[in-house]
Amino acid sequence: MPIPALQALPPGVVNLQDHEDSARQRLDANAWAYFAGGAGDEITVRANRSAWDGLTLTPRVLRPLVGGHTRCTLLGRTLAHPIVLAPVAFQRLAHPDGELASAYAAAMLGAGQVLSTQSSIALATIAQAVLPEPTRGPLWFQLYPQHDRGFTLELVRRAEAAGYEALVLTADAPVSGARDRERRANFRLPPGVEAVNLAGLAPPPPRELAPGQSALFDALLHQAPTWDDLAWLQTHTRLPILLKGILHPDDARLACERGAAGLICSNHGGRTLDTAPATARVLAGIVAATEGRVPVLVDGGIRRGTDVLKALALGASAVLVGRPVVWGLANAGAAGVAHVLRLLRDELEIAMALTGCRTLADAGPWLLDTQ
Q1: What value does the mean pLDDT take over residues 338-367?
Q2: Cα separation values, 13 from 17, 18, 19, 26, Å
Q3: Is 268 a residue of the active site?
Q4: DSSP code of 82?
Q5: Cβ(355)–Cβ(309) under 8 Å?
Q6: Nearest to 138 by CA among 192, 215, 73
Q7: Contact 53, 210 (CB under 8 A)
Q8: What is the pLDDT of residues 50-69, one digit of tens each?
Q9: Cβ contact 94:326 at 8 Å
Q10: CB within 8 A of 195, min separation 6: which ones?
């Protein structure tokens, strides 16, 4: 695919909320319901945002700041900053260039990227476009295990061959959440937008249900991944595997014991279980449970550079950003995504300077006012 053309940003867009407000005017009701909506009453969607707002940073003054930077290390790689693009499906719903525009922006801004299994542009196309870029961050592939293990293994082999550096196994979505916004909008994929990486996957054979059996528990959930699937995957790939969707310390401990290379504290952006806890509330407990054995990343409601610093102060190694990337994409393609990333990094640097943090290593729980 050709390099995405640069577009002008809408006037007056100076923060991520502005990006969201502008994108709402640009996206049709179908796409808006898909990207903006969450499960049920969207309590968790709102809680993700309010939890970061509820944490306050304590400034430190007269500290040496010259030579400061936002560099960090993740799975053996040095990153320019701790901001990673979260996996978001069907980005061509927001812009014709879709995931390719997001990938170019991430590479130019030094951000990592996790490509969704349900990307609307092929995983190989994304890798070919950005792997040669020397400033890029890590490129990972998010994996939904499929009902056909042979097809899942084929996906893994394609990701390996394309040059992806890790797999991100989504663990918190054995079924989709009850998304009322999508149902009200009668959400559907328009012509030309599809999960291209899953092309050729045959639907699972139907299961005969006895009277009184559940179509969910006695049929669909036969396909749900378990800890055994993690073990199986580890024997079939050379890539490190991170687990996404960890909210309970016991699951964090189990993941470490079973060889996960990293964890992502995530409630799926409030799109699966409504009333699940906000990630900012449980992050410190997840970090403590790992006892430093693996890096912990976090997503859910990150909208300001101050949020990024708060996440690092709670022990996260990096943050993932999902919906704001889509808003930037809808507003101005690759340039819009780049603007979102630049805003977050600039705001992170400002927050570091105003709290006396010369580097990210200076961030810790002492920055947070817990009174």
Answers
A1: 98
A2: 8, 5, 6, 14
A3: yes
A4: S
A5: yes
A6: 73
A7: no
A8: 999 999 999 999 999 999 99
A9: yes
A10: 89, 90, 117, 118, 119, 120
Read off φ and ψ for residue 2, nearest 5 degrees: -70, 160
- Active-site annotation holder among 19, 81, 95, 268: 268
pLDDT at position 235? 97
- The token pair at 173 is 């979505």
How many whole angstroms separate alpha carbon 194 and alpha carbon 89? 9
The CB density around residue 235, as the number of other CB atoms within 10 Å, is 6
CA contacts within 13 A on the Cβ side of 366: 7
Nearest to 281 by CA among 327, 318, 248, 320: 248
**Above 60 in pLDDT, residue 371?**
no
What distance lies between CA 73 and its chain's CA centroid?
Answer: 18
Question: 369: part of which helix (H) or strand (E)?
Answer: strand 368-369
CA distance 189 to 180: 17
Give the single-character DSSP code of 366.
G
What percent helix, strand, coil does the chain show, rounded to 5?
40, 10, 45
On the CB side of 340, CA atoms within 13 Å amount to 34
* Alpha carbon 333 to its chain's center: 19
Instruction: Say what the pTM is.
Output: 0.96
Type of residue numbered 84: V
Contact residues for 351 (Cβ-Cβ < 8 A; gap 6+): 57, 305, 306, 308, 309, 357
CB 198, CB 268: distance < 8 Å: no
Please state, in angstroms and rounded to a whole number, the distance separating the CA atoms of residues 247 and 148: 28
